[in-house]
Amino acid sequence: MKKKIVPVIAAVVMIAIVALIGIATKVVEKYTPTNERMSVEEYFGITNENEMALILQDQVVEYKGFLSGDTAYIDYEAVKNYLNSRFYWDASANICIYTTPTDIITIPAGKKEYTVSANKQNENYEIVKVDGDKVYLAADFVQKYTNMDYKIEKDPSRMIVTYKWGKVTYADLKKSESVRYQGGIKSPVLTDVKKNDQVTVLEVMDDWTKVMTKDGYIGYVQNKRLANSREEETSRDFEEPVYTSITRDHKINLVWHQVTNEDSNAALATDIAELKGVNVISPTWFSIADNDGNLTSLADADYVKTAHANDLEVWALIDNFSEQVDTTKVLSSTASREKITNQLIASAIQNGFEGINVDFETIPEDAADGYIQFIRELSVKCRKNGIVLSIDDPVPKPFTAHYNRKEQGIVADYVIIMGYDEHYVGSEEAGSVASMPFVKAGITETIAEVPAEKVINAVPFYTRLWKITTNKNGSTELSSEAIGMDQADESLANNGVEAAWDEGTMQDYAEFTGGDGNNYKIWLENEKSIEEKAKLVKEYNLGGFAAWKLGFERASIWDVILKYVS
Q: Can you give the residue ranges of the GH18 domain (predicted)?
């Protein structure tokens, strides 16, 4: 019996030993770091030997560059989106443009020569290269105008660009170690670092730290492998461009003057007879006439003389309202932009007006780059000629973010919020043209991007009388009419209605059934509502106050505004 038991025990022991070995192997395997290495081409996204990877600050980006001899080139889109958005590519003209506060720099593709305003200059390399639909800029040329530094590493070819400066955390390796693609010992190895090598600390987690090596690998090492963590200040000797502004040492009090023909110009003296406290008048003189950049103009030197005789500056307005004009097409053309800016400057000099007011509305998103480039180029010419440049913007909404108010606030002298059209002719419901919450939101969201002293808030001197018509089938139709202050009061008086103050909108409100049987609603703009809006100039320390338009107001309104804008 004992002889039979012995083999059984031996078998059990053997099974146990094998099991223990298996368990031990799995335990060892679990806690043994992998030696698997990630392909560097895969990591950097390199698909051919001519490509150069781009590491911008602390991320490997999808954009690429390349080396041509000793000259490194960067994808234009990478420059624009990360490094310096003031480089502008005009594909139709095959040129790149860069604007400074005082110069327009034009760089033809494939050339070493470029112009700074009218002056020719040269580099010893081609500044712009085009490969199919890709545009590349020489890194050295970008660096001339950008607070960036870069270095090139080989095998594989890659450029490491630093463009953000300030406090950076560094640490040193306690001993030689592998940098892994992700946190975890089973993650593939990206590269190896040696004892005392310095890495940039990007993020510290429980057990692993995200780091960047000096040669551009971004990965993870265990926390216990790092020592001497320290914070250092980084900077580069670079002189940022200074955008001087032509601003006044007093609050701007502007009113727009709708000029539709020469008779409107001739009527100026009569139209401004009751003005009080206004120091700028903005006549609607210019419109883009076609996609080539020609303008229609009602500019009039006698109008300017009359305005000056009444202590008014003239800031002539230009709009894009013509149905014959494709805003994207005209603003995307360097030749068209130049034609527009040259005509405006020439007219200002010839007629003696002090400012240009740009009122481009409903700007499509695909016109955004051309639009802000137009503003930059116009600002250079205005600055050189001492002409005030102001820009009209709607109250900020997500769908107008591409207007780039931040850049406007840098290059223009004033940014005017058109604090109205909360409800407009095509609105689906009746409502105020400019309720207080709407107006305040426009101000707070604009001054988050533009210095308050450059911001002018514009109010409506008009309101909308809303008409709700009920059809025989029970459906309703909504329509409205823009009317001035006196006409609004007459409508109420004719219907025996008295408006009541609405705290929500900070306006007088009324609704009534008219003699035609239709329902009417109106939110009034009058002395009370305008006073509440004028108070905001002081409350937010704005650069001034504006109103659309001359003729919709009554004389008593000017004394109200003058209490807060002087």
A: 250-566
Q: Are 336 and 291 in contact (CB under 8 A)?
A: yes
- For residue 51, the domain's CATH number is 3.30.457.10
Closest C-alpha to 162, from 197, 123, 200, 192:
200
- Cα distances (angstroms) measured from residue 13 to each of 4, 22, 302, 511: 15, 14, 114, 97
Instruction: Supply the CATH number for residue 185's domain.
Output: 2.30.30.40
Q: Is residue 204 part of a domain?
A: yes
Amino acid type, 424: Y
And the tokens for 151?
Answer: 């270095």
pLDDT digit string (tens) for 220-243?
999 999 999 999 999 999 999 999
Same domain, 274 and 348: yes
Whether residues 296 and 396 share a domain: the answer is: yes
Over residues 250-296, the pLDDT tens digits come to: 999 999 999 999 999 999 999 999 999 999 999 999 999 999 999 99
Cα–Cα–Cα angle for 456, 459, 465, rounded to 5 degrees: 165
Of 3, 147, 157, 145, nearest to 67 by C-alpha is 157
Which pLDDT score is estimated for 7?
A: 63
Percent of the chain with pLDDT over 90: 93
437 and 375 in a common domain: yes
Which of 112, 145, 161 is the C-terminal boundary of a domain?
A: 161
Q: Are residues 208 and 290 in the same domain?
A: no
The answer to whether 485 touches 557, Cβ cutoff 8 Å, is yes
Residue with tokens 């107006």: 439
Give the type of residue at 480.
S
What is the span of the domain harbouring residue 89?
42-161
Helix, coil or strand: residue 291: coil
Q: Is residue 267 part of a domain?
A: yes
Q: Can you state the angle between helices 436-447 and 527-539, rounded to 10 degrees?
A: 20
Distance CA 415, CA 353 (A): 19
Q: Distance between CA atoms of 155 and 238, rounded to whole angstroms?
A: 31
Task: Give residue-wise pLDDT tens across range 28-83.
Answer: 445 589 999 999 999 999 999 999 999 999 999 999 999 999 999 999 999 999 99
Judgement on whether residues 268 and 417 belong to the same structural domain of the protein: yes
